[in-house]
UniProtKB/TrEMBL annotation:
SMART domains in the cross-refs: Flavin_Reduct
UniProt-listed Pfam families: Flavin_Reduct
Gene3D superfamilies noted in UniProt: Electron Transport, Fmn-binding Protein, Chain A
This protein's name: Flavin reductase domain protein FMN-binding protein
Transmembrane stretches, start-end: none
Flavin reductase like domain ranges (all copies): 10-156
SUPFAM superfamilies, per the entry: FMN-binding split barrel (SSF50475)
PANTHER family: FLAVIN REDUCTASE (PTHR30466), FLAVIN-DEPENDENT MONOOXYGENASE, REDUCTASE SUBUNIT HSAB (PTHR30466:SF11)
Family the entry assigns: Belongs to the non-flavoprotein flavin reductase family.
Length: 158
């Protein structure tokens, strides 16, 4: 396979950018991710791929729940606040406000909208764990255009 072509072609997949909220024991964590998509209407299913060995991946595995916070275009600061590993920078929330609903996963007050999931399937095939989540609760804070990965100038894929 042509490695450069593979990278370029895979980076042609267009993505949103989301803050995935996780429960880690009695605490919460969150990470910014673009590998998120819906895969079923009924039941409503989404998949999230979480890098193996991260606090978030372990947290989703042990709690069996996660939330997805839909950011608004322009909310780069919010996206960037959750890229760094909690193991290195400590609590990433700082003065970023959040609350919890059914699953205990953090929901960002400033997100456009959110949904929370119960994990119904796990696939360990690659270097990320693929979690299939059934959406059990959702909310909308305000109308707006969702953030895209492209506007950050970053890539995660290839
Ligand atoms: C643009 C971008 C997109 C990312 N997308 C994902 C993703 O889809 N899945 C993932 O596991 N990590 C993704 N990451 C990396 C996580 O944000 C990073 O590993 C984070 O530190 C994990 O947090 P934790 O260590 O506190 O669990 C992405 C990073 C960047 C810069």
């Amino acid at each position: 396979m042509d490695e450069q072509a593979k990278k370029t072609a895979l980076r042609g997949i267009t993505y949103g950018l989301y803050v995935i909220g996780t429960k880690v024991g009695d605490d919460v964590n969150a990470f910014t991710a673009n590998w998120v998509t819906q895969t079923s209407f009924s039941p409503p299913l989404v998949v999230v791929a979480a890098k193996k060995g991260t606090t978030s991946c372990d947290g989703i595995k042990s709690s069996g729940v996660f939330s997805v916070n839909v950011l608004e275009t322009g909310q780069k600061d919010l996206a960037f606040a959750f890229f760094k590993p909690v193991s290195r920078v400590g609590n990433k929330f700082g003065d970023i406000e959040f609350y919890t609903e059914q699953t205990g996963s953090p929901i960002l007050r400033d997100a456009l909208s959110w949904f929370e999931c119960k994990v119904v399937d796990v696939n360990e095939r690659g270097d990320h764990t693929i979690f299939v989540g059934e959406v059990v609760n959702a909310g909308v804070h305000r109308q707006g255009d969702p953030m895209t990965l492209r506007e950050t100038g970053l890539n995660y894929g290839g």
